[in-house]
Amino acid sequence: MCVIAVQTKNQPNLTYDEVRAMCKQNPHGFGIMWNDGKKTYYKKGFFEIKEFYNFYTTIRQDSKVRDVALHMRIGTGSNIDVANCHPFPISSVPKRIKSPQGTADVCIMMNGIIGSSTKEFSDTALYTMNTLKMYYNSDVRFYKHFTRKQRLLFDNEIHGCRFAFMDKDSCDLFGVGWSDYNSKAMVSNRHWVWNTNSYQSYYRSSDDSYYYDWWTTKNGQRFATKKSDKRHKSYIDYLQETVV
Hints:
By secondary structure, this protein is an alpha+beta fold. It has helices at about 15-25, 50-60, 95-100, 125-140, 150-155, 195-200, 230-240, and strands spanning about 5, 30-35, 40-45, 70, 90, 100-105, 105-110, 160-165, 170-175, 180, 185. The chain is globular and about 40 Å long. The termini are close together.
C-alpha cells in the first residue's frame, strides 16, 4: 500500500529514519510536490532514499515553500518507472503525466487502487487523465467547491482511496484513513510505522538499495493467490487490509 505524507509550513521535518521507513515499505519510486503561493511544483522518479530525503530537506529549507507532500509507491501491475511515480499534474496529455518534474495548476497524489491499469499507465495515471481532467475542465478548483451531495458522490467514487490535491495555496485531502503522525504530517496510512528490526523479514539487507524480495522472485509481478505463497502476505494482504 502506497503512503502519502502531507506537511504544512510550520511542522517540523520528518526524520531520515521516518522517510526511510515509508520508502522501505513502498520501494517502487518516490515523489514530492510543494507550493509557494504562486505555483505548484513536482518532482518524481526517485529510487534512492538518500537522494530523495536530501531533496526533501532542501525544499523544506526554502522560506517561500508552504505545503509539501511526499509519496512512496508500491506497484500494482503497471511499470515500475519514473512515469508511474506520483505526483501527477491534472492533465490528459500523456507526456505531461509521465514528466519527471515541472509545475502545474493542480497536482495530485493517491493511496489505494482506483480502476484498472496498463503496463504503460497506472490506475492513478488513467484516472487522472480520464476522470479528474474532465472535472478540472468544468471547474479548475472542483475539489474545493463540492456541494454536500457532490462530496458524497466523490467520496463514493474514490471509496477506499485517499487523495491529496495541491494547488498554489493549499493541499486538500480526501478519503477515509488520514491520520496525524506525531504532529509532523497527515499520513494516508500507518503500515510503515515499524521499528528497524521489522523490515528484515521483507528485505535481504538493511541498507537503502532498491530491492524488494518478493517482487524480484520468479513470477513476482503476478498476484499471489495462495497463503502458502511467500508473496501473499507482503502483497495481497497489505494492499487489501483496512487502514490501521
